[in-house]
From TrEMBL, chain A:
This is Skp1-related protein. Keywords: Ubl conjugation pathway. Residues 118-165 form the SKP1 component dimerisation domain. PANTHER family: SKP1. CDD domains: BTB_POZ_SKP1. Pfam families: Skp1, Skp1_POZ. One of its GO terms (biological process) is ubiquitin-dependent protein catabolic process. The lineage of its organism: Eukaryota, Metazoa, Ecdysozoa, Nematoda, Chromadorea. Gene3D superfamilies: Potassium Channel Kv1.1, Chain A. Residues 2-70 form the SKP1 component POZ domain.
UniProtKB/TrEMBL annotation, chain B:
InterPro entries: F-box_dom. It comes from the Eukaryota. This is F-box domain-containing protein. Residues 9-59 form the F-box domain.
Amino acid sequence: PNVKLVTSDNEEFVVDFRIAKMSVTVSRLMEAMNMSETDDASLLSNSIPLPNVTKAVMARVIEWCEKHKNDEPKEEKENDKRGRTTHVVSDWDKEFLKNDEFGRLCQLMGAANYLEIKGLFNDISQTIANMIHGKKSDEIAEMFNIHCDLTEAEKKEIRKKTAWCED
Amino acid sequence: FIRPCFDLPMDLLALPESFLLKLMRIMARKDRNRLRQTSRNFEKLVAESDAGHFDYCKITYYDFPREKSSEPVLIIHIDEETFSEIEITNDGLKRFLEFSSRIFKTISMNEVRLELADYIFPLDFLRQFLSKFDVELLSFVTYSDIQLEKSRSIIVNFPKSKYSLRTYFHPEYERILSLPPMEDLKILSAHPENLPMTSESFLK
């Protein structure tokens, strides 16, 4: 069975029921609209409005979901519950995200957050953490267009105070 | 309509709070430290966020003379990372507390392992530093009654944690019985010819 999803720019995407269920937000909406896998009429007569996602971003989300639709559901580890994940971005996911500049990653991340697709959200978070990893502070500032409002004297003082922990 | 690239959000701080807090939890300590040096807003975000969950933190005391300094030091390991030696002087400990308060507000650990020493051990510092920690298991290695007593005084600060203790001397039974229930208790002799006493010895 298929489910119709409508984006903010009025584009309709018809996706497999399994893909629609990968989003907690869509699942909840389907439940609220009494749409079920066994009731074709309910699926045909309804569409799910997604006002916070554009066509371009939705296409990317669906591409990711297509790849992951047969993944085994991951058991939540104790560490995950407490916040820190040992999330490993798979080779396919790295490839999928590698050409996205930061702005596009943010849009995709915003959609993953809104649609509650945890795996995609974790992939993007880890990708951004990896982008920061090992960079110097001025490189991080340049990469993310961060306007540095610290004075040279303050920066020098911070570096002095934290030099020993950079060993 | 596809938004052009220049119209895309490029400000890391403009991202949803849930994302920023998640990012803070998965970043390495050095990366957090460098991010906080990029602007006042990031300095605040890093200082006021949770550093996430780690497997273990090990705190060891060293007092043998070294090239750099003759002061006794604490060495703190968090997972694979090792902090530089923290001199056990008022200035050294104050500097470290200031630093740690700038890179995280809270942190959680599967296990904190402490190897205490008989003398000049900065218990107040340790209590202050560990007050930011949510600890699942607090483990102690002790070699004397003094160290065992210090362990007991730290345990009081972590009523919700589990504990384990390994001693390399034979403490008095009364002292052992005054300890809270342990996940694991091993009483080993510093002399290899003596057999280890285990928690079972107290259950007979």
